[in-house]
Every structure is written in C-alpha cells, then in structure tokens.
Design goal:
By secondary structure, this protein is α+β, with helices and mostly antiparallel strands. It folds into 2 domains: 77 residues, Arc Repressor Mutant, subunit A (Orthogonal Bundle), CATH 1.10.10.10; 129 residues, Orthogonal Bundle (Arc Repressor Mutant, subunit A), CATH 1.10.10.10. It starts with a helix and ends in an 8-residue tail after the last strand.
Length: 227
C-alpha cells in the first residue's frame, strides 16, 4: 500500500471511530476533495476490517453503512459499566415486530388477523418511537389503511445489511429484549412463539373492520425487500 493510501485509510478509520452512527460510502467519499471513488473506499474498508479482525472491536457493514462495533462476546463485560438496563419489550410488542419484519408491508388489520388479538396503539407507537417500523404507504382499499415496514435502524440494530439476512424464525432469539416474567399481565398477553404456526398463516389475512367496512377478508400484499 502506498503512503497516500495509508493516509486515506487513516482518515477513514478516524471518521468511523468518532462517528456516532454508521457512515455510508457516499458520506465517506465526501471526506476528500475531490470525492474519492467508492470502489477505492470499499477496498480500503475491507483492509481495515481485516486489520481489526483480532481485536475486541470490529468494523462491520450494516444497512446504513459502515461502523465500528463491539464484538458480541465482549459486550457482556462492557454492560457492567453501565447501570442502565437496555429497553425491554412485552411479548406482544416483539410478536408484532416479527410479523411486520417477516410479512411486510402489512396493515394493522393484517397483524391483528395473524395474531388473533387486537393491536393497541401503544404497541405500534412503541415500535415507531424505537425507530424500528415506519409507514411506507397505504393500501388501496376502503379507508386506505397504513402499511408498516421495518426501517434501516431496525437492520442496523440487528447488525444486518438487508432483510434477506434475517434468520429463519426458528433461529430468531429475542429473549434478551423481553420484559421479565413479573411484568404486568397485559404486557405479556401473547406468547412470542416465533417458530409456531402464528407466522405460518397464509399471507392472506383479514384486514379487520377498520380496514374493510364489510368485514370481508382482504389479501395481504406481498412485497420484496424494502430496505
């Protein structure tokens, strides 16, 4: 590697280490004048990733770009430094999130039809406030119900670059995000059961009375990866 490329690599490393969020190739390109070609940046990032491979911190690519992050096996030790516990969510919230992630885009009525119970406004707001879901459009049916899908932030928090990398439902472990057993009953109204028939229901789902005045089932739309 030439001295100039080493200098550029050092700049990229410093930018990523000090950034509070993932940086895209386009953002990293703007560090230089004139902007550096993205192919060159990508190559240098791969070299940086290799250089950090044996350390407790790794360079990773996620949906929003590239970032330095703690290796999973190191994180439990670092958690002891922080007295604050990470947010914990009810099974109903996590079940709703799973349906959106694996069936998106879906309406609130679709979710209710799959879960078999109503979806409270609080559940939807919790996921929106966490920036894990967002409205991506409206279904062209009476009432034009909102269509929900997951966000890049959701993928970033899972350390993924696209929805195609989501694990099979049977392998999805969200136990560390769930509220403890002594949570109020309403917070654990349904079993997560991500590998159970609840998400093996055919994609056709009743959108609910709020979405279809006559109450007849409407087919849930199927969509490719949105992010």
């Amino acid at each position: 590697m030439t001295e100039e490329l080493r200098r550029i690599e050092g700049i990229l490393e410093a930018a990523l280490l000090t950034a509070g969020e993932p940086l895209s190739l386009a953002q990293l390109s703007k560090l230089f004048d004139p902007p550096l070609e993205t192919d060159v940046i990508r190559k240098l990032l791969e070299e940086l990733r290799s250089a950090w491979a044996g350390r407790g911190v790794e360079l990773a690519q996620v949906a929003s770009g590239w970032r330095f992050q703690t290796k999973p096996e190191i994180q439990p030790f670092l958690d002891r430094l922080s007295p604050e516990k990470p947010p914990r969510y009810s099974r109903a919230v996590m079940e709703t999130l799973a349906i959106i992630a694996y069936r998106q885009p879906v309406t609130r009525g679709d979710i209710e039809a799959i879960r078999g119970v109503g979806v409270s406004t609080h559940i939807v707001k919790t996921l929106e406030d966490r920036q894990w879901i967002e409205i991506v459009g409206h279904r062209e049916t009476p009432g034009r119900p909102a269509l929900y899908a997951t966000t890049k932030q959701f993928l970033d928090d899972l350390g993924l670059t696209s929805l195609a990398e989501l694990p099979p439902l049977a392998e999805l472990d969200t136990s560390h995000l769930l509220e403890p057993p002594d949570a109020p009953p309403q917070a654990v109204e349904a079993e997560l059961a991500l590998a159970s028939p609840i998400l093996d229901t055919p994609a056709s789902a009743d959108v609910g009375a709020s979405d279809a005045p006559d109450g007849r089932p409407q087919p849930a739309e199927s969509s490719p990866t949105l992010h």
